[in-house]
Design the sequence.
């Protein structure tokens, strides 16, 4: 079961899994995108009995999530893998962003993750099998300029995964948390439309991975039963050293900011 399975990282994971012969349930809001992804996945089936379910659901709505999970479990059985990739990001200046953006981002990225786990977990516990994979971000390790709605939602996902990890130990289930770097997906393209100039400057030298490469590293991490999955070298370093790096990174970002503002002031004169 893959939320956000109609696009980007979620779709790339679904594509790999269908090639491995899995039954798949993709969950997202837009039915047209779901249908076209379902058709693309159907063309990649390795055997005719493979099932693909596409359920239109808003993961920020608890009742909708419960219905979707019940339907998916009734059709395909308790999930071996529950991957919560549905997410949004609206970068911008804190002072200019509407409160609704902060609320929507937390509702989808954090509560959308929590609701899916909460709805699927009883069945997974009953069957004593399954692996939950939640998707955070590098912005869930360090707060980033321009990401005041997004970073806290991804920090929250981290808090949830780390707290839940211990509780799942005795159930035979696994949980992993992924910190993807900037990944070439429709979300990143949309973010680039509203990123403040300062954010563009900070992120311009960051590594950008393809969704396929990120998906491969996620599946490798699942195979290893790794709790933390960090696609690419930058995220691996950031994960291990972010507390040490934070003052250094903040100093560097502030320096970039000062340079940008100095250039702007000179241009204004
Ligand atoms: N791309 C990056 O650079 C990057 C980096 C780090 C972390 N991430 C995280 O990775 C995950 C996947 O991102 P992506 O880049 O693959 O994004 P994407 O291409 O925009 O895909 C997002 C998916 O989530 C679905 N979705 C969004 N809101 C939803 C809602 N309320 N209910 C159900 N489905 C919803 C979208 O479909 P609908 O719009 O039709 O609902 C779509 O299928 C996100 O959690 C993102 O924050 C991405």
Sequence:
């Amino acid at each position: 079961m893959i939320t956000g399975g109609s696009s980007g990282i979620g779709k790339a994971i679904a594509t790999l899994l269908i090639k491995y012969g899995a039954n798949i349930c993709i969950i997202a809001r837009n039915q047209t995108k779901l249908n076209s992804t379902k058709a693309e996945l159907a063309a990649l089936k390795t055997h005719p009995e493979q099932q693909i379910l596409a359920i239109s659901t808003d993961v920020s709505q608890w009742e909708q999530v419960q219905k979707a999970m019940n339907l998916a479990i009734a059709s395909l059985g308790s999930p071996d893998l529950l991957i919560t990739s549905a997410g949004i990001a609206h970068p911008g200046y804190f002072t200019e962003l509407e409160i609704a953006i902060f609320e929507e981002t937390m509702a989808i990225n954090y509560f959308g993750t929590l609701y899916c786990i909460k709805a699927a977990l009883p069945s997974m516990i009953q069957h004593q099998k399954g692996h939950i994979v939640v998707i955070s971000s590098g912005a869930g390790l360090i707060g980033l300029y321009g990401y005041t709605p997004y970073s806290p939602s991804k920090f929250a996902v981290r808090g949830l995964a780390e707290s839940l990890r211990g509780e799942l130990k005795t159930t035979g289930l696994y949980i992993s948390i992924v910190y993807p770097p900037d990944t070439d997906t429709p979300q990143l393209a949309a973010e680039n439309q509203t990123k403040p100039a300062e954010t563009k400057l900070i992120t311009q030298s960051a590594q950008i991975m393809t969704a396929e490469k990120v998906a491969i590293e996620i599946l490798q991490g699942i195979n290893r039963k790794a709790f933390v999955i960090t696609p690419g070298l930058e995220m691996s370093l950031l994960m291990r050293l972010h507390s040490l790096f934070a003052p250094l990174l903040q100093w560097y970002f502030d320096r970039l900011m000062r340079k940008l503002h100095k250039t702007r002031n000179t241009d204004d004169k």
